[in-house]
Queue: 2 jobs
Job 1
Amino acid sequence: MPRETIRRGRAAVACCLMLDGRAARVQGHFSLSFNKYSLSLGPAPRSVWGAVSADRDLELRQLRTFVAVARHRSFTRAADDLHIAQQAVSQQIKALERSLGVALLRRSSRRVDLTAEGAVFLADCRRVLTAADRATRRVKAAARGEAGTVHLCYTLTTVWDTIPRLLARIAERHPQLRVEAREVFGGDIPDLLLAEGCDLAVAPMTAYPRGFRRRIIRREPLCVAVSETDALAGSKRVDLARLRNRRFEVWPREMAPGFYDTVVGACRDAGFEPALDENAAGNMVWGYLARGRGVALINSSLAEQLPRGVTLIELAPPGAVLTYEAVWQRGDIPAIDRVLDVAAQLAGEQNW
């Protein structure tokens, strides 16, 4: 093994222990992985182990001071750069060298140079400080709600337009904020929020337990979905009251309370109690509609995602609207505020 490698290896032991654990003590010996070599450095003097245990108390300010001196090759210029007294720079460097048990700098009346040991330590110091700065930025961003993870639940009605636009805008504005999103039944949202299975939900407006927080993020017109063979299929608009004698395909309230309440409420506002298909659930609804078994009220953003055999007709004024809410239960998640900010911005831009 080259002599220079051995010399640098011995000097780097204390540094490695502090910074990334590449040196270890095994049965009273030092061992070190250095580049492609594996080096056993023999029994360690008691004084060395004292220094190594002490370096656990090294502070980031000492590392920053050392890096500044190494960069400027001057205590005076380093002090100016750090906005501290030159005496404080000297004291920190001496304390650092004493803690490590090695000389990091060679001082002369004209300049300051790195020792071989100092050069090894400098590279690792820069990595440590970069990581510390990154960690500081991330934790501050997390405190602002701009980093971290938010768990979002949403229902089927939001799948085709609302949620994709929301997620895309969050990724654009807050790239460090990760959103873990999943589709759920609206009826499961209260339990998920209470059990902290999700942080925030987006679903059609409905009643929630006391203490839940809510904010409207979108209002979307409803249309009438019918079979392409239905007598109304060619109509541009239809009055909801004309459907009083038709069967309505709508999911049970326990699955989709907000959507159910909206559909039933719109029919009642039009002067009739809707006849509901008791067998309507899941994707069976689309099959029933295509075969002409019944009709449905559907949010207009589904227009480009309709299955074969189904068409949409606009509702004549006053029409009906599906209102989406953001719902949450905990108040200690800053990321929720950022999601709501993005939703409000989208609503303004898209005239939601």
Job 2
Amino acid sequence: MNDNRHIRAGIVPCLVLAAFVSVPLCAPAKAQPKPATQNSKPTVPPASPAAADELDAAYSAFQRGLYLTAFREATRRVEVKSDPKAMTLLGELYADGLGVPNDDNKASDWYRLAAARGDREAMFALAIFRMTGRAGPRDRQEAARLFADAAKLGHVVAIYNLALLYLEGQIFPQDFARAAELFRKAADAGNPQAQYALATSYKEGVGVKKDLQEAARLLAAAARAGNTDAEIEYGIMLFNGTGVAKNEGAAGSYFLKAARKGSPIAQNRLALMYANGRGLKADPVEAGRWHLIAKAGGNNDQFLEEFLRKMQPADRTMAEDKAKPWIARMTPVGSTPFPEAPAPIKP
């Protein structure tokens, strides 16, 4: 029996894997990736010792939260040296309203000046502005051009975003092989999102030859870096022994990490492991606890509902008591046993 419940629409079909006892286990559907915006903070570039010392004064102040000092030092650096890195820093300060009032137009102006002088961080930041419609209308074509320019200069997240555009096939002709090539560049540079995306390509055989061992290797790298989706899918591969040596205990540790970060999918898998005593010592209280939390997050499970119904009253009460503080911090999308909890969100 296949578990076809999808949390979100996937860009590729869900890969059905082996089941937990009588309860199917399926890799969670991956939503169509969105352009990454992390690592858009300006970074200190390599420079000559003297130039680095001057620029470091601005970045050091920025990193310590001394934003007015950073603004003054960066402004001085621009006036004296017309330094593009300092321009990018000024753009960041205006973009986030740090030490100065938020002003997207000024931020965009500084990013544009720095990008014209070859700064890849500015190119990336300006691409995000164009993609999201900050400081002007959305312009995906211009965003794509800027991502490509930043990617040529080695900006890892820009490389990843460029791969997504080839995967999407709207701005560029859809090209899975090119997307996989770009994902590989970003993955080799240590980007967890790219590692996860490339793993999905290998798992599905999209743009590359299907290779479950390589998929598992990449998922492991992304999971170790804390990518939640990778923690879940690598946990599934470990549990089933797909592309990697079977290790149910290790699978449980990855599910636990993702569950603690709020993933209803991982919470459900963890509850199943506790209920069945697979990979983790059987614990009905923990099974009930994580099921209630997953259910409040929108991931219900009939097997676990029946398991909960048959629990000893004292164990069920303990499970509810342990779940209640967690659910109290949530905005439930599913039902809960607590009348004072926020009303579930209607689909």
